[in-house]
Structures are given as C-alpha cells and as structure tokens.
Amino acid sequence: MEYKDLTKNWQLKQRVPEVDLTADFATTESWLPANVPGVVHLDLLAAGQIPEPFYALNEQQLQWIGERDWLYRSTFEITAEELAEAELALCFDGLDTYATVWLNGVQILTSDNMFVPQRVSVKSLLRVGSNDLHIVFESALLRGQQLEAQYGKLPLWNGDSSRLYVRKAQYHYGWDWGPVFMTAGLWRAVRLEAYNARLANVHCPYEVAEDLASALLPVRIQVEELAADSAQEVHVALYAPSGELVVERTLALQGEQVVETQLEISQPELWWPHTHGKQPLYRLVTTLHGTQGEEDRHELRLGLRRLRLVQQALQDEPGSSFYFEINNTPIFCGGSNWIPADSFTPRISRDRYRQWLQLAVDGNQNMLRVWGGGIYEDPAFYELCDELGLMVWQDFMFACGLYPAHTEFQQSIRAEAEAAVCRLRHHPSIVIWCANNEDYAIAESKGVSDPQITEHFEQTAFPARALYEQLLPAVCAELDATRPYWPGSPYGGVRSSDPTIGDVHVWSVWHGGLPYQDYPRLAGRFVSEFGMQAFPVLETIQEFAPPEELYPQSRTLDYHNKADGGPGLMAPYLVNNVRVPADLEGQIYATQLVQSEALSAAIRGWRRRWQGPGCEYTAGALVWQLNDCYPVMSWALVDYQLRIKPAYYTIARELAPLAVGLSRQSPDSVAIWAVNGDTAEVQIELELRTVNLGGEVLSEHRRTVTLAGNRSRELDVIQQPQNDQEVLQARLWRDGVVVARATLWSEPYKYLTLPDPQLSVERLDDQHIRVSARRPAKGVWLEAGATVKWSDNMLDIVPGDPQIIVASGLGDQAIQARWLDK
Asked: Where does 389-493 have alpha helices with state H?
C-alpha cells in the first residue's frame, strides 16, 4: 500500500455568505496558510489576525469565530503510476465537525461527527497532475441550535444546551474549568491510500489463562481486495518483548475476505500497572502478500494481562465491591481524571503527552479516567499509557446532559462507537468502557430517571438510556468483549449516588459546601471524581493576567475561574481553615495548601478502607482533575503550563507503596493505620512522636509491626487529647530508612499561632537538599523556578526529622521556601 500525506499546502478563509460558494473558493483574496492537523483559531493566531486567546479577557472577543463558516482548500499531485492502482481512497482521520468535501468539483462526503473518521473511494475522480480538495466547515454552534429548535431543548449542566445535539468535543462549548472556543478544521491527519489489496482490520482478543501460565491469541483478519488475485496469503508473526519471534503462521486467502487463526504461548510475560510490575509489550505483525510481493503490513502492540471487574458481596458492609483485578491481583486504583490538555487539541504533541503522563507515574498514580466531555485521545496518549503502565478508564463522549436518541443521532453514535472501539481495543491500558459522565445524575436531578422502565427509552424523558443500556453495550460486546462495560459514571444502585454499589462522584465537598475533613466518611466503593480548587502558581497567572490585574479577585482572575460562583465557593474553604492573606502570592499559597490538605485527607481516608479480600470497601480514588486545557483557577493538580501544584506531592505520598495515617477519632483519641501497596508482607517499625510547637519532643515510641500485602491495617488507637500546642508525627522505618510519614495538627489551622520554625534548607550538592527545622513547620513549599523538578514538596517538617529532597535541575538557582503563617 502507498500512502500520500495530504497535510501540506492547505489554506483557509472565512466564508462570505453573500458570495456563491464556487466563486468564494475561486477567489484569490483573504486566504491564509492553514496547518493540518489544526483548527481555525490557531491559524488566525499565527497570521496575527486575532490576539492570544488565553490572555486576559480575549476569549470574549473571539466568539465570532465559532459563529462563522470556514473554507479550506488544497491541491495535490497524482502520478500515472499511482492512478494505475486498483483503488485510491481519501482518508480523513478527523473533521471538526460539520464538513462537506469536494474533490475536483465533485462532492464526495458530508460529515457531522468529529469523532468518526471518513474514508472515501476516489479513483474515478482523480486525474494525473494537480487535484483540488475543497472543504466547507459550517458553524457547529449554529447547526446545533437549528437541531435544538427542531427537536426541543434538553436539560444539561455546562455550556450551550445545543451541544447535546452535536457530536463535537463538548468542552468546546465551555465548562466549569474551560473557555468557550468553538473550533473548526481538519483536527487530525488526512492522506491518500493507493492499493490493490489491504488489511482492512486485524483483531486479536487474547485471553490469558486463569493460572497465568498460558495465553490464547485468536487473530481475525479482514482483507479488502480490489484487483483480481492481488492478495494471495497472510503472514502472522508474534514477537516477544525482547524482539524474538515467538510463533508465526501463513494463511492462504483463496478468495476469502476474512481469515482466522489462533496462536498459543506458554509462560507469557504479563503486563501490569506500573505500581505492581513491568509493562512488556508483544508485537503482532500481519503482512499481506500478493503476486507482486508485499501489499500491506499491520502491527499491533499487545500487553497480555488478565482483567476482571469484581463486584461481589463484602464482609461487613452492604452492597458489593467494585475493584479491578489484573493478573489475579486486586488493584487499588489511585489516580486522576483526564481532560484534553489544550482547548486546541492539535497542538498537544507526543512529547507533551509524555510529560503529562510521566507526571502521573511519578506521582504514584496508576489510573487515569478519560472524561466523557473531551475527545477519544490521540494514539500517542494510549501508546504511552501502555508503555508507562497507566490504566485507563475510558468514557464514551457524553457528559452532563440528557442527550437525544432519535434515529439519525443513534446512527451517528453507532458509527462513532464502532470507530472508537476498533481503534482502541488492543491497548492493555484501557480497562473499562464507560458510557457517559454524570448523565444519570442529571436525570435523577430532573426526576426523569426511572429504573422500572426497561424498554422504549426513546419515548421517555431520558431517551439516552437507549444509547447507554442498548446501543453502546451491544457495540462493545460485538467488537470488544474482553473488557467490562459500565453504563455511566457515577452509576450503581437505585441512584447513582449510592455509596455501596458501583462508582460515585463525591461533590458534597466543594459544590455541596461540606468541610473537606468529612471526605473519609463520604466514601464509596470506587470514587471516580472528587476535587478542590486552587490557584495555579504565580508564573502562570502572570502569563495570562495584565500587570494591573495581579491582585486577588481582579476581573481577570475571576474570569479565569470558570466554575459557576467559583470564587465564592472557594472562599469558605479558606475562611474556615486558614488565615486568609490579602496579597496575591499569599492567596495562591492558601488555596494550594487547602487543596493539598483536602485531597490528601480524602485519599488517606479512602485508601484506609482497602482492607484485603472481602473487605475492599473502597477500591479507587480518582482526583478531579490531573490537568487543565488552558490557564485557569481549577481543580487541576498541574496547571496548563505543566507547573505543579502542591497537592500533587501530597497525593503522591498518600499513594506511595507504604503509607501511614493518623486520624482523630474523638477529642481524646487518635487512630493509627498503615497501608502496604505491595503484594508481599513486610515488617516495618512504627514510630510515634509528640512535639510541641516550641520544638520540644514530649514523647517518642517505636515498635515493630507486620503489614500484610495489598491492604491497609489498623495499628492502634491511642489516647492523645487535642492540643493546639502539639503535633503528633508517625513514621514508618524500613531497613533504617524512613519510608512514610504523617503528621496530625490541631485544626482549623487558622487558630494556631505558629512560632518561627527556624527552617533550614541546606544544599548537599547541585541537586540534593536537606530540609530541617527547630520547631514544627506546616506546608513547606519549595520553589526555585519552573525548570526544577522536586522529588517531594509541600512538606511538614518536624524537629529531629530532616528530609532529603532531590531537586533535579537545581544547579545554583536560589531556593525560596514558604510555609503556613510565614
């Protein structure tokens, strides 16, 4: 097969409605260079025709772009040899969104779904020499509003309600963490394929045996043959992660369009989440041979692993478990939700994806949830998750609305789901297909969710159940029966908020106003969303806010908080917990400290409930959210510019292989527990120290404890009256090294008067520092510029417990430290 890249030599212009379309395409005026993959906004920005979209309030000035139609045009050359091939097909991997395409003046396709790749046979329309491609992208906003006027307005949270009718990334309409930028363009690649025969599809739904000692790899190959006898045989070869050939087969076609074989291997190298093992990847190489030699080649990278979603009765609590089991090992899933990493997705490079995903790995996270209001991510995202050992909870692209289910809409969804499942099903990182985000919750909020109704959903006030309970599970069962399917997130029980069945979203903290200290008691079987907002770091704010706006509650800062009433929701969490600074740097630190304390309290409390076989009371905690799509005040752990917020580090400590926890059970007692995330039993030393705010050690005890593998263990309940003047510290020692720490301070912190801790930051070499203090210091935040990568940060420093920190890239840069009440 020959591939011709058609991403070059594109131009775009705004459609002039008063001018005939043919004349509009033919004009020589107003055309701008267009990047493919790309979107209109980026090309207008590159041409200097619009200001930086993310700066200040510029978003408001750019809404006209989404209300216009846009023209794209390109020319490409075809040789006589290429035209002699039996078939030539134009392949569009992504058209955003309402697109009509002409080749040499002939309309060849219309598309209304940005998630459905388009493939069109064009041999009869091509000519030797120059060929013309013309595309009109109509305003998705206006088209959606027309559909809404036709079918009726439907309930939703976030964005223009017409989005529910449009198969476009829903966050483009604006969300409570992102701006409104209604993009258009060729957002993914376009190419011309020339061939006599091709491998139309290769599927390998492998199965690892229950004893993990062998694996069956059934291979189903679909061949498209255009020229008579052009395809004669298919060769299938499986290569081990080392590159060594494991097994091969040669299959004769004899006119068949589908051929199948089955490979079997013993003692397979198993793929694991990075927290539990390695990520060996096999290569399945399929080659199509014809009379003239090799016709086509296809390669899949396979991570062999045994996967189950376990829902079974629990020992001491009602309902059922909800945990993922990889290779017969129950996995506690600690991680984050993932949104698109840019409002303009074509500029997310593979390197950018790698930086983001490496941050998740380095932060001890083993699962990311690809949220349903974004996109089915670029192949690079899933390839890197495979390589790095990150499990992926994959939503279909529905979020926060009661979607329609009329016939044409369902047809579009079927094409979308089939394309997504076929493209992604070979990735070992993906462990579940989930239909939507919060659609059952909004149906319940409107009183239109009735579990007693089991058919004819299209005739109800919640028509999308036809998608979530019929269409999507049928597609998954047909095309990928190797993974569990889940109807929504949250979902389970009579209501989606049932904490005893399925997954839950815990938003009674933040949206509901409950104190974050309540997180541990708000547990569910699997918490797939929860979060607390914080400002990004000052450098990021300075990049989007004019100098005169660099103060708390400025117009620009409020505008860059997209949550409805966001600044007002953030305020009580500051007022109730810390002394609220008046300056911007102080407020940045205060919001980040509160976010850090809140999220660590949640994960610490929920991981405590991972208590072994039959006691998997909480099996996952996914923070909302890892990343941002633009610079904003949000729930993200890392801001748009890849600058880390303190909560990232506190969560990493709570998700470490060994962790220790302290919790006040009553005004006079404290519970102590520890978590062993490894599968093997370990012996460690538990140390408890009480230090007063003056730095005096009041008590100190050590004892040896045994921690069984892959669970938490309650260690003790001690009598320790609450005292504003004392800090309790727990440390876990292993082989003479401190492997985990926890501190318990009197709360709220605003009532504490903390003396100067006399903090010391000592340079040991150009990338190692020692942090110590003569009095307890809460929330020590180290900064030395954006290029420095810290091994740990946002530290509680207790006298007699110096901490060694790796500061990669530090060199001779100055280190600044801030802590609570500084």
From this structure: 407-424, 439-445, 465-466, 472-479
Residues 441 and 396 in one domain: yes
Question: Which structural domain range is residue 445 located in?
Answer: 332-653
Residue 137 · residue 187 · CB < 8 Å: no
pLDDT digits (tens, 9 = 90+) for 45-85: 999 999 999 999 999 999 999 999 999 999 999 999 999 99
Domain boundary (593, 625, 653) is at: 653
Question: What are the tokens at 587?
Answer: 């407020």
Give catalytic status of residue 438 as yes or no. yes
Together in a domain, 508 and 647: yes
Cβ–Cβ < 8 Å for 252, 233: yes
Res 599: pLDDT: 98
**Local confidence band at 522 (pLDDT 50, 70, 90 cut-offs):** very high
**810 and 759 in one domain?**
yes
Instruction: Determine the average pLDDT of the residues in 551-578.
Output: 96
Chain Cα centroid distance, residue 195 = 37
Which CATH number goes with the domain that contains 143?
A: 2.60.120.260
Q: Are 209 and 262 in contact (CB under 8 A)?
A: no
466 and 572, same domain (yes or no):
yes
pTM of the model: 0.97
The token pair at 432 is 């579940």
Rg of the chain's alpha carbons, rounded to an integer?
A: 28
What is the domain count for the chain? 5
Residue ending a domain, among 612, 632, 653, is: 653
The answer to the question of residue 312 being in a domain is no
> Exactly one of 438, 549, 654, 687 is catalytic; which is it?
438
Closest CA to 134 of 15, 47, 48: 15
Q: What percent of the chain has pLDDT over 70?
A: 100
Mean confidence (pLDDT) of the chain: 96
Instruction: List, for residues 669-702, the tens digit of each pLDDT value.
Output: 999 999 999 999 999 999 999 999 999 999 999 9
The verdict on 519 and 454 lying in the same domain is yes
Do 392 and 263 share a structural domain?
no
Question: How confident is the model at residue 255, as a pLDDT?
Answer: 75
* CATH number, domain with residue 702: 2.60.40.10
Q: Is residue 696 classed exposed, middle or buried when 0-12, 13-18 and 19+ CB atoms within 10 A define those classes? A: exposed
> Tell me, what's the pLDDT at 267?
98
Q: Which amino acid is at 441?
A: A
Digit-coded pLDDT (tens) for 27-51: 999 999 999 999 999 999 999 999 9
